[in-house]
Specification:
With 122 residues, this protein is α+β, with helices and mostly antiparallel strands. It is built from 4 helices and 6 strands. β3 and β4 form a beta hairpin. It holds the Pfam family SnoaL_2.
Length: 122
Amino acid sequence: MSDPFTAFRAAVERDDIDTAVALFAEDVVFHSPVVHKPYVGREALGAILRAVTTVFEDFRYTGSYGADDGHVLRFEARVGDRELEGVDILRAADGVLTELTVMVRPYSAATALRERMAALLQ
């Protein structure tokens, strides 16, 4: 892959979470759409991404917007009967992903996501 942003998208679309997580720095910072405090580290990121793949149904990227130091991937998915849309905001330095921020809408879908993720990550 030509850049870490493209490689991340490809890995997620293949449901290859191990490869996706390996693209990040050891001290990656993950900002959750439903938790105030950021998570730090690959281990935490891997656990979250694995849980998300079981919670999101019909996940698909629908857009891609980028610059040299950051990239936004727009997506759509379903959580139960709630349709949602969101973005993965990726930051990188020296070809390594350093930060992932996820935002989702609408609020009802974010609430359903929070409830299902909490159950999986406890």
